[in-house]
Amino acid sequence: MVAAPLRAIGFPEIPPGVRALTPADREALTQVAALRRAGLGDDDLVNVTRTASLAMARIADAVTAESTVWANVMGATDESSSEHVDPLATFDSLLSYLSRRQLLAAVLWRTAATGDDLDWPNLAVGFADIVGYTELSQQLPGDDIAALVGRFDSVTSDVVADGGGRTVKMIGDAVLFTAETSAGACEIALTLSARLHADRDAGFPGIRVGLAWGPVLARFGDVYGPVVNLASRLVAAARPGTVLVGAEIAAFVSDDERFATRPLRARRLKGL
């Protein structure tokens, strides 16, 4: 059971007799074996390892994407003591803290989840995407595209967190998020739209949002199921600057004075 964890970490298949592992790699495999002895099943172990490795690959890419950023980190010093800072050790410590913080958040989230099956909690699922991104990406210089997406990522992350939601993932020009209540999801969607609409004078094209409610399969940091598909189709059908919601969410917030909804004519959504 060595090959599967190695592939999950990201190693290619190692031919028999080839010495390819460092002492750190062997220590990691020792830790994997300890987790197996503690009762973590082989399939779950491989899936968790793969998910963690993919997340770490994204972190590494984000840190090293700009050579000047990484150079600054490598040359960092503690100004209060004038001593050289070990950036890798400091970064490892930060990652350890972040992983524990996210584990706590995940436990609390599952504790608060509603529904009979914790693997299928009832959630509001939202998609938001940048209006006209495909055309813009063909017209704008690379630096402008990076600034556009960076602004979108920054605002969506802040707004979703402030609204008590969870950013599931960024998908190019779109964000997938969840919220525990329909009202919370609507607040997030409207705040996102307002914040980014205010940036239109600075060249931001605006966004559109789709929201749906229902049971969602939550596994390995992602969400799946018909409700996710519906939210994806709703955002594709939404007009720029609007929030298009499914019937369940519209019913939930119908008596909430903070929101105003109006029905649209029936239409068939692609793939549903």
Give a concise summary:
This protein has 272 residues and is α+β, with helices and mostly antiparallel strands. The protein folds into three domains: 1-9 and 20-68, no CATH class; 86-115; 122-252, Alpha-Beta Plaits (2-Layer Sandwich).
Query: Segments where pLDDT lies below 50 for 5+ residues?
Result: none
Largest sheet: 5 strands, mixed
CATH topology of the largest domain: Alpha-Beta Plaits
- Helix and strand pattern: HHHHEEHEHHEEHEEEHEH
Can you tell me the number of structural domains?
3
* CATH superfamily heading of the largest domain: Nucleotide cyclase, GGDEF domain
Strand order of the largest sheet: 4-5-3-6-9
Structural class: alpha+beta
Helix content: 40-55%
Strand composition percent: 15-25%
Overall radius of gyration: 22 Å
CATH class of the largest domain: Alpha Beta
How far is it from the N-terminal to the C-terminal residue, by CA?
41 Å
Can you tell me the overall shape? globular
Please give the number of β-strands: 9
Named CATH architecture of the largest domain: 2-Layer Sandwich
Mean pLDDT over the full residue set: 82
Number of helices: 10
